[in-house]
Design brief:
It is a single chain. This protein is 43% helix and 15% strand. The chain is built from eleven helices and eight strands. Helix 1 packs parallel to helix 2 and helix 5 crosses helix 7. The relative contact order is 0.16. The protein binds 1,3-dihydroxyacetonephosphate. The site of 1,3-dihydroxyacetonephosphate has 14 residues, from strand 8.
Length: 254
């Protein structure tokens, strides 16, 4: 049994005061969540606040991006060691918004995943197809090449130290959600790609679903055999909604 992980991706949202209220709300509600693991991936400027407010709670801190390099003359970048210094346990790598708007390739993403693991964090590697790709029957080809594009560069052993998030681009922020069957099928496919290299790691690895997971659909999605958690965008910005998803994670844990 894989322990469900419910991770919030706040994206580029939040001020010091809104973050304080949201983090405090999540921390107090999370005391009733015992089986699912909970994390919030906040914007860089809010990491310090996150570290303070999450201390001693059962909510872990994460970041949304990391530099490929370990330090030095890289203006505007943030290293994995810096994230660890601020208490980050998780870091999202290769989110579709970074692939699309910032030109992140599998090569760059593989370096980010490696740098994060080397620093002691757990990367959440995101993969997923666009609507056009799905309609063209290319979803598996795209997802497969995103997985293999990282796997071939960093090796299967690194997959023992990361999580994968399946995030169909057409379901992100659109209110459209993959049906539980569509999501389950994609997760089975992703697991099979890992199993090509190691059945044992494929069995262990957590595959989260992301793309308009919300309070109303979390239970059904999380009840699928190969959906091991969620990466939550919009609904993670409302403490009560996020906590309902965390509770659904608890239920899914049995
Ligand atoms: P939404 O939950 O807002 O669709 O965002 C999903 C996502 O991109 C999480 O990383």
């Amino acid at each position: 049994m894989r322990r469900p992980l419910i991770a919030g991706n706040w994206k580029m949202n939040g001020t010091k005061s809104s973050a304080e209220a949201l983090l405090s709300g999540v921390v107090s509600g999370a005391t009733s969540v015992s089986k699912a693991e909970i994390a919030v991936c906040v914007p860089f400027p809010l990491l310090c606040l996150g570290e303070q407010l999450l201390a001693g709670s059962n909510v872990q801190l994460g970041a949304q991006n990391v530099c490929t390099e370990s330090g030095g003359a890289y203006t505007g970048e943030v290293s994995a060691a810096m994230l660890v210094d601020f208490g980050c346990r998780y870091v999202i790598c290769g989110h579709s918004e970074r692939r699309e708007y910032y030109g992140e390739t599998d090569e760059i993403i593989a370096k980010k995943v490696s740098a994060s693991i080397a620093a002691g964090m757990t990367p959440i590697l995101c993969v997923g197809e666009t609507l056009q790709q799905r309609e063209d029957g290319l979803a598996e080809q795209v997802i497969g090449s995103q997985i293999k594009g990282v796997l071939s560069r960093i090796g299967i052993d690194a997959f023992d130290r990361l999580e994968i998030a399946y995030e169909p681009v057409w379901a992100i922020g659109t209110g459209k959600t993959a049906s539980p069957e569509q999501a389950q099928d994609a997760h089975v496919f992703i697991r099979s790609q890992v199993a090509d290299e190691s059945a044992a790691i494929a069995e262990k690895i957590r595959i989260l679903y992301g793309g308009s997971m919300k309070a109303a659909n979390a239970r059904e999605l999380l009840s699928q055999a190969d959906i091991d958690g969620g990466l939550i965008g919009g609904a993670s910005l409302v403490a009560d909604d996020f906590l309902v998803i965390c509770q659904a994670g608890d239920l899914a844990a049995g």
